[in-house]
Sequence to fold (346 residues):
Amino acid sequence: MSLILVINPGSTSTKVAVFVDGKELFKKTLPLDDDMLDLPLFPDQYTIRKDQILKELDRNGIRPSQLTAVAARGGRLKPLNSGVYRINREMVDDARNGLQGIHPANTAVVIAFELAQEFGMQAFTVDPISVDELAEWARVTGIQKITRNSLSHALNMKAVAKKAATELGKSYEEAKLIVAHLGGGSSVSAHLNGKMVDLYNSDKEGPFSVERAGALPTHELAEFARSRDDYLEYLAHRGGLFSHFGMRDVERIAEGVKNGEIDSTPLEAYIYNIAKYSYSLLAVFDGFPDALAITGGVVKCDYVRERLLEKLKGIRVLLFPGEFEMESLADGAQRVIQGIEEALEY
Fold:
């Protein structure tokens, strides 16, 4: 019997689950108190999140020594191919040091590694944020010294791309797909020959999201950055719909728009931009892909989903509401444990 602990930290909470032989035993979202949200990831949030996870295991009658493995969402690590990776000391150091930036998922690999060391289990991560399969032509920009890189919701987008391919009766390697992940942050990616060959991430470019600014006019962005020290906070956490409405609850925003209580223009712009940047990836396929797969928590909002589908009538759309990160992490670890797949070395 395999018992796998899954850890997936987000900006305001940590999702934790345990899977027994591939089946979910329990899943829980462990919120952080408001006064914890601005604490540094290391050591503060890391310590709090680890303690929460151990207490949740205890509440469910599970001793860490019973676990076969722990699977943790991988953060902003070095550029990697897609796959299952064994967590090692180098990965932990890169996560602690924020090699490609700070992200709550950086804490997950450190927690997983320390639990594995302490209790004698295996530790893995699957398709971390830093999965980088960009085609070389997708890296080039209009300034020779600036290149595009790949930081995205790779875990969920890869999982959904494979689900979409199955629904189309194709292998992932055969399918031509655009995948849009819509959550607090957004990513839109093009999948060709089994790789994410181009993508947008709302941290830097592409459509703005619930709390991230997306692509901005360069001159105005430069002026904004010169005028304030906290501009990065606006790009990553205080931008997007939050910048316009002062809230991150898409259902509440949509309800306010429907009732005529708030201006509809920013929400319509949000929907328009998702469609615009999704269509922009048609060039990857020299025509149309097999389908556009849309996933993430925002897809559960009826108003946004219906308005988005109206703008995407020219393309086949497959909907996968919610996220599939927890099961993808568990499945990856399970495949290695069963000998179906070999873990990659970081």
